[in-house]
């Protein structure tokens, strides 16, 4: 197993600033970034910054690809009308779950302190559970909404059918056909 990259030993605020500089520079200028770190008293080689930058760039491009996919999905949903069945929420939840899985794998690779990694994984697990609850709640709400709409449609159809001379049996059959499979 290769030694841990020295960039991970930087304080979080310095590493965050480095991340911002890497993204804003288009993941270029590693020598200048190593010099920037050196000016702040951190001895990190250009090679370490480069390896870290390449990994960050890969993660960044994957994340941006996921954002583009979600945006395209949202546009498609908007063009088809309202997303009553919750496809957008499901797609977003899947993307977030995928990202949380990647984060947990990265934490396992980067973290030397098992207790700290376990605590962070606990946070990731909680986030996954929250996403699952949101998705289930949304699906339950969508089903309840479909049932309610079907009941209203059945009542209106039954009333309209009777007004047009439909027998009680015919109106009941019409109502049953509309409500079939809704409960």
TrEMBL record:
Lineage, top ranks: Bacteria, Pseudomonadati, Pseudomonadota, Gammaproteobacteria, Oceanospirillales
Source organism per UniProt: Vreelandella subterranea
Record-given protein name: Phage terminase, small subunit
InterPro entries given in the database record: Phage_Mu_Gp27
